[in-house]
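[step 3/7] fold_predict: job queued, chain A
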Amino acid sequence: MIDAQQLTKRYGEKTAVDGLDFAVKPGTVTGFLGPNGAGKSTTMRMIVGLDAPTSGSVTVNGRRYAGHQAPLQEVGALLEAKSIHPGRSAYNHLLALALTHGIPRRRVDEVIEMAGLGSVAKKRAGAFSLGMGQRLGIAAALLGDPQTVMLDEPVNGLDPEGVLWIRNLLKALADEGRTVFVSSHLMSEMALVADHLIIVGRGRLLADTTVGDLVREAGGDTVQVATEEPARLREALAGPGVDITGRAGSEELQVAGLSAREIGLKAAEHRIALFELTARTVSLEEAFMNLTRDAVEYHGSTTVDPLETAARPA
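[step 4/7] structure written:
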């Protein structure tokens, strides 16, 4: 379990992490989300003692990371896949870690097989592609058979087979009762693998929730309906848990709390003709973008003014 209490990190006048309170519990995959510059990497570095908090605290399984006698067997972390000696083979890199942490040599062979590195285990890691470097970093994180696994952007550079492998691996680790904490910018993957979400923006906690609850709060499943008799349809559909919105004078309504089938049956029962009946599901990406809209530090421009471009000096 990872427990952060008022965790804060400042670099001069810049506050990278601002009073975070959260707990990452065992038995679930917890996604750690936020825009670039939100403080995710800094938070992860503080969890494993690479950065010291300015104030507040963070513990893993009840202790600070540095307080564990065998930290690699408590927390397995991937923060930077390429942080290995380029001239060392994958096998020797893992063997060096094992021998300096009291981990049996046989475990090196186990994680090499687990990560699909068997065919390149004796090759120099400096020649690895980004994807193979990710696999080696994950193998190192799992070397101590830790109860807590923390991975920063683990699918970065992986091919589709590798992405599927990571997805299944994370679920399997959580099913074994381990604490799994994963950061990613790929909302589609988080929607498939995460049970819980911790979302930050500008260093502050924005949400500590489940995927389902976040999507539901963002609008969840809605149905767009069009009819010449919106007032009658509102009356026919009204009931507990049903939310109906629409502009005054418009024939279009947005209905939450009823399926398209249920709406269609109700309309037929009251002899109300429908012109449109379209079900729409809010994606995790949409819910995330909506939540973090005011916390994005780096905005890209989607349009370029040709007059402005022409006026720029060469």
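[step 5/7] annotate
The longest strand covers residues 14-24.
Confidence is low (pLDDT under 50) at residues 303-314.
exit 0
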